[in-house]
Amino acid sequence: MDTVDTRVPGEATQAVTALYQAHALGLVRLAVILLGDKAAAEDVVQDAFLGLYRRWDRLADPSSALAYVRSSVLNGCRTVLRRQSRDGGRGGLGGGLAAAAAAFAGPALESAEAHALVSEEHREVLAAIRRLPDRQREALVLRYYYDMTEDQVAEAMRISRGTVKSATSRAVAAVGRMLREGS
Amino acid sequence: MNAVEERIRAAIRAAGDTVHEVRPLPLPPEPGTARGLRSGARARRARIWRTWMAPVAAAAAVLAIGVALVIVRHIPNGGVPSASRSAAASPQPTASAAPAALPRYYVALDDTLKTNSPWAVVVGDTFTGARLATVSPPAHGTFAGMTGAADDRTFVLDATTCFASAAASRLCPRTWYLLRLSPGSASPARLTRLPIPPTASGTQVQGIALSPDGSELAVALQPAGSVPESLSVYAVATGAALRTWTGPSGTIADPGEWPRADSNSVLFWSADGRTLSFRNETNVRMLRTSGPGRDLIADSRLIWTYDGSGYVHGYQLYCNNTPNVASDGITLVCGASGEPQRSVRVPSKCSAMWDNTMGFLAYSTAAPKLARPLYIDQTTCTSEVTAEVLWSSPSGSAMLVWLNSAAESDPAGPQTNVVGMVEGGEFTRIPFPLNGGAAIPNQVAW
User: Fold this and answer.
1) Domain final position from B305, B340, B368
2) Which residues on chain A are in Cβ contact (under 8 Å) with B2?
3) What are B77-135's pLDDT values in tens digits?
4) A87-109: per-residue pLDDT in tens?
5) Are residues B148 and B243 in the same domain?
6) CB contact under 8 A, A145 and B353
7) Stretch 29-48 of chain B: residues touching chain A, C-beta under 8 Å
8) How far apart, in whole angstroms, are the C-alpha atoms of residue A64 and residue A19?
9) Which residue, of B65, B190, B236, B343, is most buried by count of CB atoms within 10 Å of its CB?
10) What is the CATH number of the domain that holds B297?
């Protein structure tokens, strides 16, 4: 008898499925903002949940699962951006603002409808955000998309509140500077 | 929220709102076979073991305080001059075993996990962890900040009567106190009120720094409303304001939200007291204290910006934590975190997702580029990390630092949270009381 096939789904399946249903959409949105690419964003989020599933019995505190997944999504986005930059694709980090904006406007948003929802001005801002260092970009998105407090951002990114504050304010200043220079 | 922030919020929400659904999650069969069940049993045993071992581990930690400074990592850094290992090699740390370059005594806020009651300060021994004295706050008040002179015996503390909430306390008046240490004497710590004028209600203390000789106190203030912020230098003995410069709001970094601890990491004196540096979120500037003018911007010079990153051992590191200007006035040291350099393949035991590193870098303010790495941890395998300089020697070659990170092996588990010294490319943990894991910067002064 195949014990795998006949086994009643256990704790990990139920818990991870419930967590996915509750939070996957928000996390994919987060990853889309960071990556500008829905397919890549979904891959990152699914990888994060699969990682959680594999590690479930090693998780000391199941209530920290969402924090784990969110950290994994942030790390996964960083990896994708590094790979894109290394492969010369998308041009967001290494190129100028116009190139990055063009990259964001290309395969980033999957449909004409989605493309229409993001105006030229928004794309320019998003491109500037993607040129920020990892920490600044992530702090900015968590703060202004999720409306997280500095405490919550600090917990999600596992950095201090002071670092969140400085990273966010530096990011805002840098985006403002890039927008001025690009205009 | 300013116009740029409004644009950022609108843009990221527009991008997020383009996603309306996600594909299902294809989970593989759950490991329920004999192998999987063994794995679960092993995990449960591990949890039981952890529970049983917790008091043992705590006891071991206490013992460790009395044993020695323990080298937890040694990452050789090319070009970093070798330094004395006497502290690490000694099985029984004593004053004589302590590195001469490091200050022996510190003053720290006590038990900062208490959020609605007054804070005392403790006087501690850097190398043994011994508590030499506890100094109670003034009546009906709490200590709110501290800064030390170079002699390791003279500190200025500020106190406030507000401690209902962190937000409220930041805007409450501060009164000033001198704390003198006499270790080994009948009264090892003596507190006296200083004649420096109290701050006005509604004014936020942006930063404090005692001059190396202990004779002058620099205080940066941001009054309420659209009023320029100021940087004043007071004579500690008389309370007289010797100099004041003003500048637009934001010239000096906001202290952030470290609970009720006024920042002692935004103003930096040179050893001779002739220059005073200050930082904000994007740059560091230096004033000549005897120079003409009263304008924080016009009468200072830019000595460093956050823009640059450095490449060390195949990692691109960003100096993204609090920079400290060493008292030589030339060296700037900072905590850094980074990721693998894109063009270099670095052997790493970390999976790509967690291949981050942290460390400390030194820059020269004379030529704002990376001068040398002071310590790089390539084996961290962390999620985000925080590396902060708490104290630096005059040349930046020795530092007391705080490291905080989460490990790949258990990213949702407890964070690594240690204080130690960095010297000669090594990090050596010191037995500093961590107040249950509370944030350290600004809550301690050496």
Assistant:
1) B305
2) 172
3) 222 222 222 222 222 333 334 555 789 999 998 876 666 678 899 999 998 989 999 99
4) 443 333 223 333 334 444 444 44
5) yes
6) no
7) 29-34, 39-40, 43, 46-47
8) 11
9) B236
10) 2.120.10
B11 CB within 8 Å of a chain A CB: yes
**Together in a domain, B93 and B121:** yes
Whether residues B270 and B339 fall in one domain: no
Measured from the Cβ of residue B307, the count of other Cβ atoms closer than 10 Å reads: 11
CB-based contact B18 A109, cutoff 8 Å: yes
Q: Are residues B311 and B204 in the same domain?
A: no
Residues A147-169 have a mean pLDDT of 77
Contacts 24+ apart (CB under 8 A), B214-220: B214/B149, B214/B150, B214/B151, B214/B154, B215/B273, B216/B242, B216/B273, B217/B147, B217/B156, B217/B176, B218/B267, B218/B269, B218/B276, B220/B252, B220/B266, B220/B267, B220/B278
Contacts of B11 in chain A (CB under 8 A): 118, 121-123, 125-126, 129
Contact B411 A110 (CB under 8 A): no
* Pick from B382, B319, B391, B328: nearest CA to B356: B382
Angle at A53 between CA A51 and CA A57, to 5 degrees: 110
**B107 domain residue, yes or no:** yes
- Are B246 and B348 contained in the same domain? no
Same-domain pairing of B218 and B230: yes
Residues B283 and B345 in one domain: no
3-state secondary structure of B174: coil
* B52 in a structural domain: no
Give the structural domain span for B262. Answer: 62-305
Identify the domain boundary among B305, B320, B348. B305
Closest CA to B373 of B401, B350, B396: B396
Domain count of chain B? 2
User: Same domain, yes or no, for B74 and B135?
Assistant: yes
Residue B272 lies in a domain: yes
Count of CB atoms situated within 10 Å of the CB of B49: 10
What's the distance, Cα to Cα, between the start and end of chain A in Å?
68
| ipTM value for the complex | 0.79
3-state per-residue secondary structure call for B192-260: EECCCCCCCCCCEEEEEEECCCCCEEEEEEECCCCCCEEEEEEECCCCCEEEEEEECCCCCCCCCCCCC
